[in-house]
Design goal:
The protein is α+β, with helices and mostly antiparallel strands. The chain is built from eight helices and 20 strands. Strand 7 and strand 8 form a beta hairpin. The protein starts with 8 loop residues before the first strand and ends in a 7-residue tail after the last helix.
């Protein structure tokens, strides 16, 4: 005879790792067999029986039921909120998850791709454990920093039809599709009465086909804003509203630069290919060392003057404008600058720049000359104090008494310096342009 204590069921929960749970239900009323129901992760329930020695089982196991945690809760865990991957980031978009539910995670593993205000970045997890649940699915946009809202779904959106076994059997016998039955049971569950009600209803006449109405083509397309475009709009608006801009424009002779560029490229043996922009960057960095007041930034309570020329180069990408930085440009040669600009611009267009590669900088260059733009004025990139807008190079006739025709053809270029009057006075900006002209019109100085 088995005591009353043995005529009940024991429920045990066993942990595997930090996620998987095994539930064991043991009816002790049977002498030599028990039924075990196990659930691992998200796998279906499996049921199997095993023969054991019942007396040995009681002797080796405590008969007191234990519960390690509630069946509907998770083991000890932490929720990872939307990280701030850049100082200017206020919200982000969720890209592709690199881990699946149940996957083990080690420190340094890429968990998910995050679209910041500037680029698409990989978010690396710094803890070890397992991915228990994805709260924000791939493609979710505008998730605020520090939040992580779980997505909610009801049973009707999962594709599963909730119906009682009797209702399913009756629907099969009567040839009724459960998709056509409206459930009146708890939480919309389909009952036997629901199936009988639909089967006994008189057939209705089929609906007449409706001729589709072709709407006229819309005269416009609404393009959703990316986080990057939102940040660009906000920063440029703030700059134009709060920064007192003024503009200085000069025309420079580009003959010597073009000649030196051609000579160096011909002798490079394919190791490098210099552009006019490389000379502009080097000339700007050299002039900043002579007039450091322009190499400064406004910080409300003070003006920060930089010792190195970190040149931000405005680069167009499919998502918007970004400014990768050539650091310490004053100490780098033209070939090094050329190689670095090409490499940074390439990764910028792919959205693979690191935050430190586009945040900061002490001076910005925006060159639209390759698009045939003669001259323009650029908006300052705060907290920097100046930005140089570069136009295209064009030929121009100038008087020359030594020539047979009394004139000659020269290559000229217009540049405009936008200055923050809080930091750079007009005389200081003019002095910087004078130094910049001396380098660009005598480019051999850049090789010294």
């Amino acid at each position: 005879m088995y005591s009353l204590r043995n005529q009940r069921c024991l429920t045990r929960l066993h942990r595997f790792g930090s996620l998987r749970v095994s539930t064991r239900i043991t009816p002790l009323v049977t002498p030599a067999a028990f039924t075990r129901i196990a659930k691992f992760g998200v796998k279906p329930l499996t049921t199997y029986c095993a023969r054991i020695n019942y007396s040995a089982y009681l002797a080796s196991h405590d008969s007191t039921p234990r519960r390690y945690y509630a069946s509907k809760s998770y083991p000890p865990h932490s929720v990872i909120s939307m990280p701030a991957l850049s100082p200017t980031m206020t919200m982000g978009n969720v890209g592709t998850w690199q881990k699946k539910i149940g996957d083990e995670i080690a420190p340094g593993d890429v968990l998910v791709e995050i679209e910041t205000d500037k680029a698409q970045m990989d978010f690396e997890c710094q803890d070890e454990g397992y991915l228990a649940k994805v709260l924000v699915e791939t493609g979710t946009k505008d998730v605020k920093i520090g939040t992580s809202k779980p997505t909610t779904t009801d049973h009707q959106t999962t594709g599963r039809i909730f119906a009682s076994p009797v209702a399913r059997r009756l629907a099969h016998e009567l040839g009724v599709s459960l998709n056509q039955v409206t459930g009146t049971g708890p939480k919309g569950r389909i009952t036997k009465a629901d199936v009988e009600s639909l089967a006994s209803a008189e057939p209705t006449e089929p609906e007449k086909p409706v001729t589709p109405i072709i709407e006229p083509t819309s005269p416009y397309t609404d393009i959703p804003l990316t986080n990057m475009r939102k940040v660009i709009a906000q920063r440029l608006t703030d700059s134009k509203v709060y920064v007192p801009h003024y503009y200085l424009t000069i025309e420079v002779n580009m003959d010597k630069v073009l000649q030196l560029r051609e000579t160096l490229n011909n002798e490079s043996d394919g190791k490098y290919k210099l552009s006019v922009n490389d000379f502009i960057i080097k000339s700007s960095a050299s002039a900043l060392m002579v007039v450091p007041e322009v190499n400064s930034a406004w910080h409300n309570d003070f003006i920060r003057q930089y010792h190195n020329a970190d040149i931000s180069v405005a680069t167009a990408t499919p998502s918007g404008l970004i400014t990768p930085i050539v650091t310490n440009a004053q100490s780098k040669g033209l070939a090094t600058i050329s190689k670095q600009v090409k490499e940074l611009a390439g990764r910028a267009r792919e959205g693979k720049l690191l935050p430190q590669e586009y945040q900061g900088g002490s001076f910005t260059i925006s060159n639209l000359g390759m698009f045939g733009v003669k001259s323009f004025t650029a908006i300052i990139n705060p907290p920097q104090s100046c930005i140089l807008a570069v136009g295209n190079t064009e030929q121009k006739l100038v008087p020359d008494s030594n020539a047979e025709t009394n004139y000659r053809v020269v290559n000229t270029m217009h540049v405009t310096l936008s200055c923050d009057h809080r930091v750079v006075d007009g005389a200081v900006g003019s002095q910087w342009l004078k130094e910049w002209r001396s380098y660009i019109e005598n480019p051999l100085r850049l090789l010294l």
